[in-house]
Amino acid sequence: MNVLEINDLVKHYGQVRAVDGLSLSVGQGEVLGLVGESGSGKSTVGKCVLRLTEPTSGSIRLGGADITHLSRRAMRPLRRDVHMVFQDPYSSLNPRFTIERIVAEPLLRHGIARGRAAGERVAAMLEQVGLRPEMRSRYPHELSGGQRQRVGLARALILEPKLVVADEPVSALDVSVQASVLNLITDLQREMGFSCLFVTHDLSVVEFLADRVAVMYLGRIVESGPTARIFAEPRHPYTQALLSAAPVADPVRQRERRRIVLGGDVPSPVDPPSGCRFHTRCPLAYEECRTREPVLADPREGGHPVACHLVTADHTPDATAAR
Questions:
Q1: Quick check: 278 and 237 in contact, CB under 8 A?
Q2: What band does 14 get if pLDDT is binned at 50, 70 and 90?
Q3: Which domains are present in the chain?
């Protein structure tokens, strides 16, 4: 059973089509990496899942329950099952609360524990995320960025949710700290078994963390599949371009591979291009790409879904550049 199911999700802000017909699912204990450039709509998807913003249309199911149009009151008990780790570990923490109060807040809000019982659970959770007991009496401004993000993780996990939405959780951290936080997220996910929608623009993070990948471009999924397969055999020209720009640890491979440089800018979500939304920047686009919108589908047995006329017409673009 899938923990999260999104079908034909649409979110428009006035004329801006932030998300425009997106479908995806996250299985039990699975980490799905949602990847795309800034402005692709990936963070909006996460906010819709938590109902921090209201979807324009489509459906969102959490643990089998349709939460798309639930009232705030009806949604409240379900919030125990889904929590978010925000991008900025400082602005997402109340500067007037101690670390203990911040982490205990979900327990208090849902009436699960108070007083000494809450304090014991907070102490255990802080230890689990690698923070010392004396941190409980400190305030967010007294902690480093990595420590604050660990507090954010502790707060998100204190109720043992079924799903965690992580929105660029390491992008605001120093590079030297990112690896330790990513390792922590991986360890916690394995220990606690929660599912995770991991929103990021960093493909190296996705390769390290995710079981599956969904690549977004201008409000829609253009390719999805198991992480190893996407990295070994990217089929959409956009995915290939992203992978060609991602650094690799092997200096020989880094020198040998060909960088795919995309022309032009990302089109405005106010007026997306007709046909394939990527055709204005795609070096392989032909007439059908400009006039007919591709459908996300798996055109061959044993492959993975991709929305590209070049693939469905068996004109598979050269993937060697992205390897």
A1: yes
A2: very high
A3: 2-232 (3.40.50.300), 233-323 (no CATH)
